[in-house]
C-alpha cells in the first residue's frame, strides 16, 4: 500500500515535507520506520518470514514487526498500528521500549533505494499469544530461541534479511539484559 511519509534529512531530522512512500523509495529520500522486536521472558524471539511478493528481501526472516510511519503519525502510534496489522495483537504504547535508532541504506534496484531511520523497540509478549499474520505481508511467524537467532547472526545466515549497522547484535544484547 502506498502512503504518505514524512521526509527526514541525513541526520534523521524532520524536514516538514511529506511524499508518497513509493516516491521516497524511488528517489532514495530518508523517512522514518518502526521496528518492533517481540520476545519472551524465557528467551524466545519472534521472527517474521517476509511475504514472497515483497519488493525487498522476499522470503527472508526479519524483525517481528516493521513498517513505515505515516505523515504526522507518532512513532509509538505507528508501532502499535503495525503490531496489530502484521501479527494481529493489540498492545499499548506502554508495552513498547525504545532501544535505538538505526540509519539504513539499501539499494535494491535502480528504482528502489531504501533510506530509512529505523526506530527500534522491544515488546515482551507471552509465547502463547494468539498471533494472526497479515497474509499480504507475512509468509510465516515463528518463535525461535534467542540462542538460535544469535547463531544465525554470527554465521551471517542467508535466510536472514542482511544485518546492517550491528542492529541484530544490539537487539540480542538488549533482550539478553532483560531475561
Give an overview in words:
It comes from Flagellimonas allohymeniacidonis. This is NUDIX domain-containing protein. InterPro entries: NUDIX_hydrolase-like_dom_sf (IPR015797), NUDIX_hydrolase_CS (IPR020084), NUDIX_hydrolase_dom (IPR000086). The chain has 179 residues and is an alpha+beta fold. It has helices at 21-27, 75-87, 146-154, 167-176; strands at 4-8, 14-20, 31-39, 44-50, 61-62, 65-68, 97-109, 112-124, 138-145. It has a four-stranded mixed sheet with strand order 6-3-8-7, sandwiched between helices. A three-stranded antiparallel sheet has the order 5-4-9. Helix 3 runs antiparallel to helix 4 (167-176). The radius of gyration is 15 Å and the shape is globular.
